[in-house]
């Protein structure tokens, strides 16, 4: 009897966690693979993510500090919007509708929010550069995002003052 209720309690605790994980891994795999989503027999397949671009400029190597990056969060419409992932700075200005102030992914604008990207988290406290403690599966998610951005946004520079745990080794 006691063991039955123990199983029931364990299931009750575990189920929401499993459901959440499934939700997020589904979300990120749709995100990361940019898989076409079919919406019915009579409709063409629809891609929810923007396709890769063929017209990217050669990557630039301009140095940015994390403090300097803050100016590129979209709050000044005369400036471009930058998102940094693992220290690579991407110009996401043409997706103002996603990264601009008040938009869904503004949390990643004007900063390096690698940890949050790896965790599939939109919480402000997770959008920080130090991703060193991520488990292997979240490291993979983060790398998939880096590759996703590399195929869609121009690289305009690199962050030169990443926390020591994730700074490139010289
Ligand atoms: C149920 C939850 C979610 C849904 C339905 C969803 C849906 C979408 C959709 C439809 C897009 C394409 C948007 C566009 O190109 O205009 C997108 C892009 C994106 N999502 Fe999500 N999302 C979810 C959760 C998350 C979470 C938790 C994160 C946190 C990392 C995230 C990060 C991103 C990023 C970085 C993009 C790329 C935007 C780009 O540069 O093209 N999403 N999402």
UniProtKB/TrEMBL annotation:
Keyword Secreted present in the record's keywords: the answer is no
- According to the UniProt entry, where is the signal peptide? 1-19
Bias kind Basic and acidic residues: ranges: 39-63
Q: Spell out the SMART domains in the cross-references.
A: Cyt-b5
Which SUPFAM superfamilies does UniProt cross-reference here? Cytochrome b5-like heme/steroid binding domain
Instruction: One GO cellular component term, please give it.
Output: endoplasmic reticulum
Q: Which UniProt keywords apply?
A: Signal
A Gene Ontology molecular function term of the record: heme binding
Q: Any keyword Cell membrane?
A: no
Q: Where is the Cytochrome b5 heme-binding domain?
A: 64-160
In residue numbers, the region (Disordered) covers 29-64
**InterPro entries the UniProt entry points to:** Cyt_B5-like_heme/steroid-bd (IPR001199), Cyt_B5-like_heme/steroid_sf (IPR036400), MAPR/NEUFC/NENF-like (IPR050577)
Q: Which family does it belong to?
A: Belongs to the cytochrome b5 family. MAPR subfamily.
Q: What is this protein called?
A: Cytochrome b5
């Amino acid at each position: 009897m006691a063991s039955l209720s123990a199983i029931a309690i364990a299931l009750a605790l575990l189920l929401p966690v499993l459901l959440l994980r499934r939700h997020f891994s589904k979300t990120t795999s749709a995100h990361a693979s940019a898989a076409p989503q079919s919406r019915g027999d009579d409709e063409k397949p629809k891609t929810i993510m923007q396709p890769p671009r063929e017209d990217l400029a050669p990557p630039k190597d301009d140095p940015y500090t994390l403090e300097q990056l803050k100016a590129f969060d979209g709050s000044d419409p005369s400036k471009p919007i930058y998102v940094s992932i693992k220290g690579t700075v991407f110009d996401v200005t043409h997706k103002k509708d996603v990264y601009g102030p008040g938009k869904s992914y503004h949390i990643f604008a004007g900063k390096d929010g690698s940890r949050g990207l790896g965790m599939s988290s939109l919480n402000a406290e997770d959008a920080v550069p130090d991703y060193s403690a991520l488990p292997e599966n979240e490291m993979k998610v983060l790398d998939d995002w880096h590759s996703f951005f590399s195929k869609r946004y121009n690289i305009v520079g690199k962050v030169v003052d990443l926390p020591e745990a994730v700074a490139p080794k010289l």
